[in-house]
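Chain A, query sequence.
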Amino acid sequence: MAENYFGITDTGKLRTNNEDTFIAQPVLNNQYIAACVIDGVGGYAGGEVAARLAHDAILDHFKTKADNYIQLMKEAIGAANEAIYTEKKVSKANEQMACVLTVALADIENNKFYYCHVGDTRLYLFRDNSLVKITRDHSFVGFLEDSGRLSEEAAMRHPKRNEINKALGFDAYIKTDDYIETGESPFLPGDTILLCSDGLSDMIGNSTMKAVLNSNNRLSTKAKALVQAANEAGGKDNITVVLVQNNKSPLKQTATKPVANIKKNDIASGDMMDEKPAIVSQKTDVKIKKRRSIVPFLIFLSILIVATIAWILYQNYQNKKTHEQEVKNTVVKKERNPQELLFLDSINGNKTNEVFILSSPENRSIIITDSITINKDSLHIIGNGITLVSDSAYKGPGLVVSNQCKYLLLDSLTLENFDIGILTKNQGVHLKNVQFKNCRVPVQYNFVFKDRPVINGRFADTVFYNSDSIPL
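Chain A, predicted structure.
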């Protein structure tokens, strides 16, 4: 077996027990390499037990081949979550146990890998001396780092860096489609994937990881060097590292000299040998002819360049006019769909301040083509599980709450694919069972200073802004 995978775990310098475990072995009839890092959640009793239960459940699901490998991993994680939660119910000593994990399946033959992830363990891809973090940390500090609000160094030092919002064992069942982060990526010859617990990523940064991975050492040596670097940086937590490399040789194209198309009869008759002196003797005449013929060619080339430039300018002018007309047509023709109009009419109706959205198994979403503005003094919208989905051509906010609206309650509603889910200008927005899916900003609060060009004072904590949550 080629040495293209390796795993190692270490207790670290401060812990007395190791709540981490890992998987690094061929699975599914030895056609794939399974790589997994499991971290028993620190601060909870039984983290080591939770990690072991997850380890066994995942390996058990990898005993048979499947058609959909991401689905297979999701089912394995679901089984691990169920095993942990069941053990918590029968063991009072471990009733608070949980774990986080990242699992990957490397398909070396087809140059691809699949992954699933829950928590703050990590998956990196190392290619051409570049290290890219594939997974996102399911934590408040991880969100700040991934969104650019915190640097890597500041995130590593943040006092809340280990507070996670997703783990296995919190609930009896997990919604695998929303709870588990999944994906797949090309895995080219020479690539390496690194899976690790936060005991590594909290201690050393990308530059140190790249320096180790870029060496010519074996995978086992690199993994041990990463663990050693984390221990030298403090070793405050258990440290686990799994490396998998696509050790196939990169494809290289061999340059070959073009071969002349020579007829066999010419070679056999010896004509080529006879023509050599003639070519040499006519060398001067050929040069003279080339000099004479170059002037018309240059004139033709100049005319062609001028004509080409003129044509390009004309086409740009026509394209600009066409684009402007298309924009005008788009603005004029933009209309809301019937469901959206019905939703608007129910909001703007004068008879009631409560909107109950009807839904059916066949119709669970409303496509929103433009922002829905709420001007009523007070309004209660009962979504009944409906999803407001942004139209692919619309990039603005989903709901806009004006200054006139003093109280808005949203109940059992989902907003999806909006740049901003809710844009509000006051503090009267209340949310109950509201979900935001793929919204860059769930709720944005706009400060309005009417007729006041000069402002003095400070921003106080509000429901939308809390100074304690912003790192200093």
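Confidence is low (pLDDT under 50) at residues 253-290, 461-472. The first helix runs from residue 47 to 61.
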